[in-house]
Amino acid sequence: MTKSKLSVFVSLFLVFFSGAVLGAFAYRLYSVNTIVATVPPRKGPGGPEEFLRQRMAEMRDRVKADDQQLEQIKRVYNETRDQYDRIRQKMNNEAHAIDEDQVAKIKAILRPDQIPIYDQIRAEHEAAHKLRMQQRGNERK
Fold this sequence. Notes:
Helices cover 79% and strands 0% of the residues. It has helices at residues 3-30, 47-61, 67-109, 115-140.
C-alpha cells in the first residue's frame, strides 16, 4: 500500500470509529431507564381519625399550641374533612350519572341479542374493579 492509500484508510477508519463511539455515547445519554416506584406501607391503621390524631399531636408537641388553639385547629380539620367528603360524594354521583349515560348510549347502539353479552362484560369489569379496590384497601392496612 502506498502512503496516500494508507492515510485514506486510516482517516476513514478514524471517522467511522469516532462515529460509532459518538453514537454509543448518544444512545447511552438519551436512552430511558424504567423506574419502578414502590409505595411504602402506611404505618398504623390510617384513616381520617389517625390523620387527625397525628396532626393534633404535632400541633401540641412541635408548635406548642395551647388547649384553646388545639380545639380551634381540630374544628378546622373537621370542617375541611367534611368539605372534602361533600366534594367526593358529589364527584361520585356525577361520575355514576356519566357511567349510566354511557351504558344507555352503548345499549342503544347494540342489537337486542348483544345487550346480555354487554351486560355480562360490564359485570365482569365491575367485579374486577371491586377486587382491585379491596386489594388496594388491604395493602393500606
